């Protein structure tokens, strides 16, 4: 599948109808989602025929991208039942098979489930300090091949240090810097749209 085709399909997905500020729910736009998963597959072979987990999947955009790129098995995890309802409808609309599980990522225990690749657009940690690191820690415990994640560029050094020192990463690499368009979703947003610089990371876990 070509990048433009993938972006076009993701652009038709439903997003949060009632976003919850405490969960830092922001949609992962088709531009970023398509590039994230396309890079994971075309540069590293981490999606097609692999078992993929989407942490904090929201309305399932990254899950859908993985399924469209022929992942062997895709599971989306989120704490919010409303988002998972939308994600399920999105998967049905695209006619792709994705399992969705309601759970708290920070308390996730995946005994016996083999996951090759984790993809995620975690909370940036602006409402709940450290939320981004909790997601990264959980992902590194689960993935056997790689973790792809979006983090604010301003946290780059902190993320790299924590991944290598605390989360058992063999490597932590910024693949590219992207512009994340944050639409005005919440009352406290002053401007109609805010542009945030984010890094697309690839973390490789040490084989235990």
Question: How would you characterize this protein structure?
Answer:
- With 208 residues, this protein is an alpha/beta fold.
- Helix content is 32%, strand content 28%.
- The protein has 6 helices and 7 strands.
- The chain has a 7-stranded mixed β-sheet with strand order 3-2-1-4-5-7-6, sandwiched between helices.
- Strand 2, helix 4 and strand 3 form a beta-alpha-beta unit.
- Helix 1 runs antiparallel to helix 2 and helix 2 packs across helix 3.
- The longest helix is centred in the N-terminal third of the chain and has 15 residues.
- About 3% of the residues have low confidence.
Considering the chains and any ligands shown, give keywords for the structure.
single chain, 208 residues, alpha/beta, seven-stranded mixed beta sheet, 6 helices, globular, Methyltransferase-like protein 5, Small_mtfrase_dom, DNA_methylase_N6_adenine_CS
Radius of gyration: 16 Å
What oligomeric state do these chains adopt?
A: single chain
What does the largest sheet look like? 7 strands, mixed
| Strands, total number | 7
Order of helices and strands: HHEHEHEEHEHEE
Q: How much beta, percentage-wise?
A: 25-35%
Number of helices: 6
Q: How much helix is in the residues?
A: 25-40%
Structural class: alpha/beta
Alpha carbon gap, first and last residue: 34 Å
Could you outline the blueprint of secondary structure elements for this entry?
Blueprint: H1 3-10, H2 30-44, E1 51-55, H3 61-68, E2 73-78, H4 81-94, E3 99-102, E4 115-120, H5 131-142, E5 143-152, H6 156-165, E6 169-183, E7 193-205
